[in-house]
Amino acid sequence: MACAGPVPDLRFHICGQFHVLDPKGRDVTPKGRKTQAVLALLVTSDTGGRTRAWLQDKLWSDRGPEQGAGSLRQALCEIRRSFGPAKDTLQASRNAVWLDQSRITVNAKPAGLDKNAELFEGLDVRDDEFDLWLVSLRANAGYTSDTGAGLGTPDTIKRKDNAKMRQIILNLQNAGQGEIGFIEEITAEAVKRNLREQADFDVHTSAPPATHPDALVIEIQCFAPTSGGFAIRAALQTVADGKVLWSDIHPTATAPTFESTPPEILAFSTIIAGRIFRAFLMDRVSNDFDPDANVLALLAMQKVFLLRADEAQNAEAMLEAAYERRQRGVYQAWLAQINTISFIEGFAARDEMASSAEQTIALALETEGENSQVLTVAANCALVFDRDPQLAGHLARTAVRANPANAMAWWVLGHVQLYCGQYDESYHTSCRGQVLARGTFLQYWLDFQKAFAAAFCGKLDEARIHGQASSILRPEFRAAHRFALALNTASGDDEHARYAFQKLRKLEEGFSPSRFVNDEDYPVSLIRSTPFYNTRKLLEFEAKL
Hints:
By secondary structure, this protein is α/β, with parallel strands linked by helices. Among the domains are: 10-140, Arc Repressor Mutant, subunit A, CATH 1.10.10; 166-286, Rossmann fold (3-Layer(aba) Sandwich); 292-403, Serine Threonine Protein Phosphatase 5, Tetratricopeptide repeat. The chain is 53% helix and 11% strand. It has helices spanning 33-43, 52-59, 65-83, 128-140, 178-198, 263-286, 293-304, 309-325, 329-344, 350-368, 372-384, 389-402, 407-419, 423-437, 443-456, 460-473, 478-491, 494-507, 514-518, 525-528, 535-544, and strands spanning 10-13, 19-21, 49-51, 90-92, 96-99, 104-107, 166-172, 201-204, 216-223, 230-238, 244-252. The strands form three sheets. Strands 8-7-9-10-11 form a five-stranded mixed β-sheet, with helices on one face. A three-stranded mixed β-sheet has the order 2-1-6, with no helix packed on it. Strand 1 (10-13) and strand 2 (19-21) form a beta hairpin. Helix 6 crosses helix 14. The longest helix has 24 residues, at 263-286. Residues 1-6 and 142-162 have low confidence and may be disordered.
């Protein structure tokens, strides 16, 4: 983000209130909030550009693709009008939008004496996806140069953890009142388990001796509709002003027992915990430039599954910083998960990642071996690097027992079952995991697991649908495109096979279908064992290219 010349066409000031100045010092900042947000997303990119789909996802996530595309076009027109003679600084193609970096400079330093100014202060566009992106940016921000070098990297995060534990109060509306009270208690226990495994909060299910002014309250209420079954309502609000941040109602056909909890209740507990995490992140980072271990770890866990090499590196640095502040085994486990993804996605060599994962997972198990998140990653490492489905199966089943609401635990168990030839069991396990992951950042991961399991059970149409859903939710997911290439070449669908091939060529330099056949280290061992896998048709397809 440096300029190529003594006087840039435009100067972007991103610390404090966002504004853009022309060479004469005139303010050419667009008026619209979302239009300003488009520029914020562009100017913080290392290349100055983003894809149109990515921009739409961050700013119009509640709209359909056509509406989002139309809104983006309007925003681009507004930017060009505002820039006037410098309108060509903004460039666009059919798929991407970018700023001409030779014509801009970026000032990421606080102005005047306000050393506590935030990045893009006051830029509120009322879209959760943009809010989370801004939270992550602020957590990573380092003001290291006038050109913004270091922006978006965790290198300058302070090495201390001086934040008090955030107070979370679970308020049960019918505690102790028969069956509906029992359902509320089971739901609350599942929420507490999810919170405890991933973060350190001060959690209460009754009124604490002293309520902190920044506490978050979750009201949980179960009721029995006249139509039958049960429904659970949850509402998240602040103590300070009683503002409701989120609420939802989920039905469940059956009540839990001491031995078993219905998946609908477990899935809702995961959603509730996720909403608590999101509210905590948005408030914590926006009010404090020194993120604590909870902030760093929660943001890093989302970056892990973005499946990009740069985000994997950022997540690794953030987890290491979190561990310096608070020595939790789960932080080490997520470092090992980065190792497995980096190998499978082709970011790093197998031997290097296997060695690193062995060290981090050993430390994770030693310090937090009862945590289902730790056990899940340990099972995945045993499968990916040790190729030991028996050990992986033992760890995965232990993880599911430790926390049956952990979608990742069900995912790795379903994966192990495929390696062991237990195809029907894997299909049912994958269905369970898919329910638990619905509406979370892991949804695409479990959709893909369902595709695999369906393929092994001979349900190829279902496999194709879930595989496509996974690749739509996460276009960078190479495994989904590999799966699609193998499935479509086997069925003779050259059109969809060619589409998957083109995606892989963009994601993997020098990719060719023959890698499936000739490269033993290429991470498609499970695809090779599917009933539809056909090396002859793969090579015939390659010959047509």
